[in-house]
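Hi X.,

You mentioned you wanted examples for the new student's onboarding notes, showing what a folding record looks like when two proteins sit in one file. Here is a clean example. The first protein comes first, with its sequence line followed by its structure tokens.
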Amino acid sequence: MPDWNGPRLTCHIEHKLQSQWKKIDGILERRKEWSAAIVRAATAAEIAANIAIRKRFESESKFSSEFVDSLLRWANGIDGKFGRLIIPAERDEVRKKALGKLKKRSERLNKKRNAIVHQGAFASKREMRELVNLSREIVNELVIPWEPEFVLGGEKLTSSKVPKAKKVLKATNAKGRKKKS
């Protein structure tokens, strides 16, 4: 039997995924950092890919967790994880085709994430909304087949559901009211 540390490891990784998603909500509530939300969403999608890969190897192999970790590093990024591990490991042709389409859609998220991280690019609110929603779809399509009870927090973003940034009061008196200028 593989050395997976059982449900503890799975819970830890799923916790990381939920934490990334919660940080997106926090970024949107506190400030208008659309680019940061996209980077978090892309990270959540890659963590979901890791979960899918780990679950596949856990159920179908006797590989050690250390070996699977080395495969995850080798695959390097969501594109490599789809192309080198997730799609090739799928035996069901219908599912394999669906995963190929999901990989193609994930390329848009990955491309924008890389532009933000490596080139200092910025994102618009519309782009952020589209890419965070795309990430949600990727996460759900990768995790739910392995963890049917999995629920990603938050709601799908629409133009009316993007939280407004909270305004910070610059000066307040002792009772917490704004000082009159």
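Then the second protein repeats the pattern, sequence line and then tokens:
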Amino acid sequence: MRLWPFVLLGLAISAHAASVMEGTQAWPKATVAYHFEPQLLKAVGATGKDCTGWARWQHATQAYKACAAMDAWTTATGVHFVLDERRIDSLYIKAGSTATQATLGHLPAFNRMEIEAGATYGAVLHEFGHVLGLMHEHQRPDRDQYLTFAPFLRNDIDYCGLTISAVCSDVRGAFPIVRVQMSSDYDPCSLMHYLSNQTPRHREDPRWGQIFTLTKKGQAALDTCTQQFMALPARCRKPGQKCAISHDDAMIVRRFQKVS
């Protein structure tokens, strides 16, 4: 659930929606061109180069999760994904060795997604949110009204600066507030929000087991937004859920991508 570092440089402002960072670009005609690394399709026995027949593929494979995620985003937003390996801006979906990560929005060239062999479907669904322009919900300028970071993380956010360490590099990329064009409410149910338990990021430090708590206002927002997920398991009704695309996620993508 990481972003490629260079995407934070940004391009021209093109949206007026919360949770889309300034500089992020929409995909032309709300259509994402993509192509797979051949080995991902070979692993599922695909006869073509696209997602045709994906529902019959082995569910544990990277290609299945990628195609299932693209189908979910299309169903929720109307954005289309089309095979086109000739375009320089085509999203290249490949195996990842150390992380599941993606570029943010549409770049003129070298859009890509890496999927680890053990990545969950929810993690892949989250990364396609980045591809479609969504930033991390917990990096919005109004986030402190809704959550309170643990003291150790707040200290790292404030003082890591240019410190050279794995932890500070992670903190600089995933937690600082970034500028957005805002017009919707904070969504603790967003697929793009982090879980409070971030133990996998830094297993050597138990403090990462709870990096934030909700404020009173945050809890009220959660109580409201979780109504959409009442039919899903309890784990899907907390900040950082990776079960489904929230209503606000879908709304923002439709607006940003100008889906007609």
